[in-house]
């Protein structure tokens, strides 16, 4: 049976590896393109999301962009956060033996000065170039698991992007009529607070199609520590690497009088659920629920204001965490075979 599983996994992996330069074969081929933008030197949930995406044969990963955190963030208080994020992403790519097959780029190390002045970075340039391609019919998704500096800057620089991609963003506070904030919730919400000017630019100044996963939704993706120990950590070098990223954090937190209990929020992993794990026919994230809203205006305080002229956006409310986590753990198990 183990040989059969190994053969099946080779067929499944043929999709993403082909998109990164491997021979054509296998039953699953890419049906969409993605650019991944995340703060990989920050919360380790971004590394889990990236590993899961790179193991998903239905997506063609066009580039990985390392993005900055808020200035002085405890995860990485340096002045080179985006550069450090790119290096962390490159480490994971190397563990999966994909070095050289997908570009790993650094975004800007600082956010936007205001909501109308874009930054310039290799990440911004790549988003624009990829979105303006005319030699492929695969739809493009830009997946942002942290701040919105690069996509906001790209859209301000090149307004045509609004008709050429879908932005999936993990971030923003709860919508008051849909959910309540958690106890002691910080304001602004963490990812919005990384670059508030960029978030205001996306909501208030662009027409980008947006699928938003606000805080009440992304907090649903809970990985039990027992499952980390039994189904992630034993799965080769990549399992050990991912487990160490969380366990090292858990070991540091007591000095800050923090006790996170026995679950960890893999809040960035909905980026995989909403793209790679879309339904087979009439492709869509059919097992997760969203509300269709007119995009609100974002205030300077990071709160929502009614905007009658806002574009329709998806606000995800309930995520299929069983599909998401089962798929991730199964791909790790098959990789181990």
TrEMBL record:
Annotated TM spans: none
Pfam families: IU_nuc_hydro
Signal sequence, renumbered to the chain: 1-21
Domain of life: Bacteria
InterPro entries according to UniProt: Inosine/uridine_hydrolase_dom, Ribo_hydro-like
Annotated ranges, domain Inosine/uridine-preferring nucleoside hydrolase: 34-244
Gene Ontology molecular function: any one: hydrolase activity
Keywords from the UniProt entry: Hydrolase, Signal
Coiled-coil regions listed: none
Zinc listed as a keyword: no
Name of this protein: Nucleoside hydrolase
């Amino acid at each position: 049976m183990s040989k059969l599983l190994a053969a099946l996994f080779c067929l499944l992996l043929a999709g993403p590896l082909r998109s990164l330069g491997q021979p054509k074969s296998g039953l699953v081929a890419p049906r969409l393109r993605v650019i991944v933008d995340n703060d990989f030197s920050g919360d380790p949930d971004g590394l889990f999301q990236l590993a899961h995406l790179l193991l998903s044969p239905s997506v063609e990963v066009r580039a990985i962009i390392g993005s900055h955190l808020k200035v002085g963030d405890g995860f990485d208080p340096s002045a080179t956060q985006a550069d450090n994020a790119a290096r962390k992403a490159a480490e994971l790519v190397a563990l999966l033996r994909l070095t050289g097959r997908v570009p790993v780029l650094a975004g800007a190390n600082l956010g936007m000065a205001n909501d109308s002045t874009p930054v310039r970075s290799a990440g911004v340039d790549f988003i624009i170039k990829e979105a303006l391609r005319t030699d492929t019919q695969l739809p493009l998704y830009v997946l942002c698991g942290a701040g919105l500096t690069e996509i906001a800057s790209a859209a301000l620089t090149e307004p045509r992007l609004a008709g050429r991609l879908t932005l999936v963003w993990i971030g923003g506070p709860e919508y008051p009529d849909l959910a309540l904030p958690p106890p002691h919730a910080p304001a602004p919400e963490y990812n919005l607070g990384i670059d508030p000017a960029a978030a205001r630019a996306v909501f208030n100044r662009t027409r980008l199609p947006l699928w938003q996963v606000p805080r009440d939704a992304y907090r649903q993706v809970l990985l039990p520590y027992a499952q980390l120990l039994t189904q992630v950590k034993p799965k080769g070098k990549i399992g050990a690497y991912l487990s160490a990223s969380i366990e090292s954090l858990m070991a540091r937190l007591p000095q800050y009088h923090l006790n996170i209990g026995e679950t960890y929020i893999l809040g960035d992993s909905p980026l995989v659920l909403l793209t790679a794990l879309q339904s087979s026919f009439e492709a869509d994230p059919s097992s997760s629920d969203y509300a269709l809203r007119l995009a609100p205006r974002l205030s300077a305080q990071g709160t929502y204001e009614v905007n009658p002229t806002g574009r329709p956006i998806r606000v995800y409310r309930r995520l299929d965490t069983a599909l998401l986590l089962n798929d991730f753990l199964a791909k790790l198990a098959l990789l181990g075979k």
